[in-house]
Amino acid sequence: MRSRKILMISGFLVTWTYVIIYFMPKVNTELPLLRNRHEQAVQQLEDGVRQEYHKTDKLMINLLGILQAKYATEAPEKEIRIQALPQNSQTILSLQEPPAIGPDQELQQDVLETPNETQTSHRPQTEIPSTVATRLANNQPVIPVLVFACNRISISKCLDNLIKYRPSTEQFPIIVSQDCGDEATRNVILSYDQQVSLIEQPDQTDIFVPPKEKKFKGYYKIARHYGWALNNTFSKGYEFVIIVEDDLNVAPDFFEYFLGTHHLLKQDSSLWCVSAWNDNGKANLIDSTHPELLYRTDFFPGLGWMLTKELWQELSVKWPKSFWDDWIRHPEQRKNRVCIRPEISRTRTFGKVGVSNGLFFDKYLRYIKLSEEFVPFTKMNLSYLLKDNYDKTFLKEIYTYPVVTYDELRRNLITRDGPVRIQYNTREVYKRTTKMLGLMDDFKSGVPRTAYHGVVSFMHNKRRVYLAPNVNWKGYDLSWS
Ligand SMILES: *[C@@H]1O[C@H](CO)[C@@H](O)[C@H](O)[C@H]1NC(C)=O
Ligand SMILES: *[C@@H]1O[C@H](CO)[C@@H](O)[C@H](O)[C@H]1NC(C)=O
Ligand SMILES: *[C@@H]1O[C@H](CO)[C@@H](O)[C@H](O)[C@H]1NC(C)=O
């Protein structure tokens, strides 16, 4: 039998490498004098042997796979279902997948993934109907909310909340895009029946990750998922899409906010997104009496955001393989465009179960305040956010406010009322000052979080404070990180 021969050969190979690994250190200890001199050489040999062993191991697994496929016709244990979809004739491979990783990729440092060994078996997938309305009868755009899901059943908290505040099911269809094929999560999504539609990322093949970035594999999958889902959704003809992650709660006026701002994206080519998130949105840093306040920011905040079809057309053709949000913040993509962000966040993450950025959540994200009031954005004049108006008023004004030091601010030594300005000229001063004030202190592509022309706006003891570079600021320094 051929299979038996192959098994014997591979069995011999494995035994042989074990024997070598076993004897290596023995030889070594018998020659204590040579040990120092040859330590490195031996080490290298050992490493080599280990590598060979791993290779043999892999070969074995491959061989077994081949043999299984060839000979084991009765009742295969692990079944891979290939399911052809009638609508778009795409193929779904349902295999186990590692858990999802949070939306904010600056939390990426030490994310590890552990595959969940649950078997999945698919029932037919729901697709976005191929003919969808992209405009309402009154010519208002239909703006789908695209929710990214993987294997967190707590997505129900996110969906309940979206459905609760959704003013119109026609105008805001909720599309949940699921990667990973986790069955439990899938069932949760399907339990919403007509209220949400489910689409599933079909490419469940293993993704290529350079060896050095193995631990970031989750981010490669996220980028693949985003690329696919956005392509899929925009291909239906929508002009805007709102992106939400499965661990976000939204504010009562979440939809009103996007409804009131979407036209700005078309009006002002220097705007490329509307985000619901304030990175410095902790309760003590915001003005809770002004939930209607909005800003322009050079920093892409993500975490509940809207983009246009035109922007997606531009980005989709060069969409990255991983770390899409750092990529999008790079000058090559951003091209000096800015987002709108609120004074008080309209989204809040309710925690990332099973991911090692729990610490970051406990230390920071949980304190971000979610706006509670309903602001009628659609009835407001928001043209102050257009570049020409904003730069003439917001930026000009800031440089009329008196400059104070952090110390004066802290010790309440400022006698006059009204806003003040703290100046920074170097990265170090910026870092030190933000740390003392409890602001986010990091940069992406040289841009501080929430900054517009380098200016970061926040509250301190009921006073508006602008942390600002000096007036002849020349632009962001990519080396600030
Ligand atoms: C996999 O997920 C299921 C729930 O879907 C859970 O009960 C199980 O403990 C998980 N297994 C691992 C290894 O995480
Ligand atoms: C989206 O679709 C376009 C056109 O088919 C293609 O060129 C592009 O590579 C796709 N992008 C992604 C991220 O899948
Ligand atoms: C809206 O505000 C802008 C200034 O930001 C002003 O020029 C314009 O007249 C206002 N429009 C209306 C209809 O009030």
The name of the CATH superfamily of the domain at 145-369 reads Spore Coat Polysaccharide Biosynthesis Protein SpsA, Chain A
Radius of gyration equals: 27 Å
General shape: globular
| CA distance, first residue to last residue | 62 Å
Helix residue percentage? 25-40%
Multimeric state of these chains? single chain
CATH topology of the domain at 145-369: Spore Coat Polysaccharide Biosynthesis Protein SpsA, Chain A
Q: State the total count of DSSP E strands.
A: 18
Strand content: 5-15%
- The residue-averaged pLDDT reads 83
Second-tier CATH architecture of the domain at 145-369 = Alpha-Beta Complex
- What is the CATH first-level class name of the domain at 145-369? Alpha Beta
**Major sheet summary line:** 8 strands, mixed
What compounds sit in this structure? 2-acetamido-2-deoxy-beta-D-glucopyranose
Low-confidence stretches: 72-120
User: Main sheet: which strands, in order across?
Assistant: 5-4-3-6-10-8-11-9
Structural class: alpha/beta
Helix run count: 13
